[in-house]
Specification:
Length: 80
């Protein structure tokens, strides 16, 4: 099942389908930045919030990386 991207500008319509949410979001961002109105739907037909796309491309939070590192160390140190 694919993510569907529909972009409109005036009477023009662009359509695309992508299996990857990340790739669909990237395409939607590019089209939106050059003036297209873009709608992305998931495989179930739900419209996705474009604000959520920015989270996909945000740099990782270094605090979360540190937390994962500490958690991994604690798991390794725990007796089996």
């Amino acid at each position: 099942m694919a993510y569907k991207i529909v972009a409109t500008k005036g009477d023009e319509v662009l359509r695309s389908e992508r299996e990857s949410l990340l790739i669909a979001a990237a395409k939607a961002r590019v089209w939106a930045r050059v003036g297209w109105h873009v709608v992305v739907t998931d495989p179930d037909g739900n419209t996705l919030d474009p604000a959520e796309f920015e989270k996909l491309f945000a740099p990782p939070d270094p605090r979360r990386a540190r937390l994962r590192e500490v958690s991994a160390r604690l798991r390794l140190a725990a007796p089996a």
